[in-house]
Amino acid sequence: MERFDLLGPLPAHGATIVLEASAGTGKTFALAGLVTRYLAETDVTLDEMLLITFNRAASRELRERVRDQIVAAVAALDGRMPTDTDLVRHLLGSEAERAVRLARLRDALANFDAATIATTHEFCGSVLRSLVWRVTAIPASPCGRASTIWWPRSSTTATSRASPTPTPIRR
User: What is the pTM of this model?
Assistant: First the structure.
């Protein structure tokens, strides 16, 4: 397994990054730092990121740590706090870079509620809720509620063109 370097080159835009390690090894710190770097060094915004954890406590902690890391970076880049961490020293760069990074991080704080930092179940639930207005239910089958299938209202699949009223799938 490759060792993660928080200050190394950022993974390509659009890449999937998975951090897997034992408890207490710094995953949350690494994720918060990685998010802060992406926000400061690239044009990626919080609403384009997806941070998934496995339980609610970890989700809350990750949300707090990401926000705290951004707040600390803003304070350091703004000169209100010492630049005593490797991450902040890395973000300092030139005066021009510092100004751009500071503006990006301030914008991230202003729009922090747009961040998707959730458990797997919370994320899936939000996706389903966002799609509710796009789907319609097939009338209940003899098998009961568990077999209800949802079909897109404006489906353009071959099935919907061939049969305007799809036949429910039964198990």
Answer: 0.70
